[in-house]
Amino acid sequence: MSDILQPHGSVPDFMSHFFPSIDVKSIYGLSEPLLALQVTELKDGVFISFGYNHMVADGASIWNFFNTWSKICSNEYDHQKNLKPLVLRGWFLDKIDYRIHIPASEADAPTSDEISQMPTSKERVFHFTKKNISELKTKANGETGSSDLIISSLQALSAHLWRSIIRHSGMKREEETHCKVAVDLRQRLNPPLDKECFGNVNNLGVATVTVGELLDHEIGWAALQISKMVRSQTDEKYKTFAENWVNNVKISKTGDGSRMVCDSVVVSSSPWFDVYGNDFGWGTDCS
User: Fold this and answer.
1) Is the pLDDT of residue 222 over 60?
2) Shortest CA distance to 230 belongs to which of 175, 270, 277?
3) How crowded is residue 224: how many other Cβ atoms within 10 Å of its Cβ?
4) How far apart are CA 192 and CA 87, in angstroms?
5) Is the preceding peptide bond at 191 cis, omega within 30 degrees of 0?
6) N or C: which end of the chain has fewer CB within 10 A?
7) Among this protein's residues, is 279 annotated catalytic?
């Protein structure tokens, strides 16, 4: 376990071997598993991981599933009071009743040129204390000068990371940079979906500025751009995006070989998800 929990925050290269379906794209869901679990036995512990297809579920759905499952296993679930039917109401554009054909080229592996551009950076884990985040939030709200628009903790932290990363990216001042935030649209649609609706109902909102603008302004300005972008994710905008995508399918390349690696900061996996509070009743005392 000590090899995994390294104190300096660097993610070991071997960590990827602990997770299933690392290189499987969501569009391969017709032939690949939609949910994969892996158990790796260590000398002094067990590492349990899972991977799921994002065409089936988003973070809100998958963590609601795990939270409920853990409560059932640890006998904390009151079946009489809490048992609710699974909400599987689908959503898509009206009158779209045909298959959406994804071009074969979209599923191709990275080209040799893209592979040669693969970044050599390491994965890192940073921990921000409540005090750190509170100070960032206070600073961001103080700089916006707006009394009717409150910058959230996540928006302030995202702005801080965005400015820090781009400052050291080597990008030119006139180039555009993006902060992309995954936004849950269940309650933003008209009519809205249930909060517990199982599926993938989110969209990647994009805040775009030039490098010069980002670095010439303080954290409050950057956070305000993110906040405005999140607020702009409406029913009308999402339907327009979906209609355009159906008519001209485009799948953005992510990861190694992608332009997104160089000019964008992507914020996902909401801190509102209960990731660490699951208890399956597997205590260390098995007597």
Assistant:
1) yes
2) 270
3) 22
4) 13
5) yes
6) C
7) yes
The number of residues in the chain equals 287
pLDDT range class, residue 5, cuts 50, 70, 90: confident
Q: According to the model, what pLDDT value does residue 116 have?
A: 43
Report which of 77, 286, 270 is spatially closest to residue 158, judged by C-alpha positions: 270
CA 158 to chain centre: 13
Other C-beta atoms lying within 10 Å of the C-beta of residue 25 = 16
Other beta carbons within 10 Å of 210: 15
* CA–CA distance, 263 with 141 (Å, rounded to integer): 26
- Supply the mean pLDDT for the chain: 83
Q: Which residue has better confidence, 12 or 139?
A: 139
Half-sphere exposure for 206 (CA within 13 Å, toward CB):
11
What are the pLDDT digits (tens) for 79-89?
656 666 678 77
- Per the residue annotation, which of 127, 217, 279, 285 is the catalytic one? 279
Q: Which tokens hold the place of 129?
A: 């204390």
| Residue of 17, 23, 54, 101 marked active site | 54
Measured CA to CA, the distance from residue 19 to residue 174 in angstroms comes to 39
Question: What six digits make up the tokens of 173?
Answer: 């001042």
Q: How are beta strands 202-210 and 264-267 bridged, if at all?
A: unpaired
* Domains, the chain: 124-267 (3.30.559.10)
Annotation says 13 is catalytic: no
Q: Of residues 29 and 75, which shows the higher confidence score? A: 29
Residue type, 113: D
249: helix, strand or coil = coil
- The residues, ordered by sequence, that sit 6+ positions from 209 with a Cβ below 8 Å of its Cβ are 176, 177, 222, 225
Instruction: Give the span between the Cα atoms of 99 and 74, in whole angstroms.
Output: 42
Chain segment 168-177, per-residue pLDDT in tens: 999 999 999 9
211, containing H or E segment: helix 211-216
For residue 157, the tally of other CB atoms under 10 A from its CB is: 21
Q: Give 285's contacts (C-beta < 8 A, 6+ positions apart).
A: none
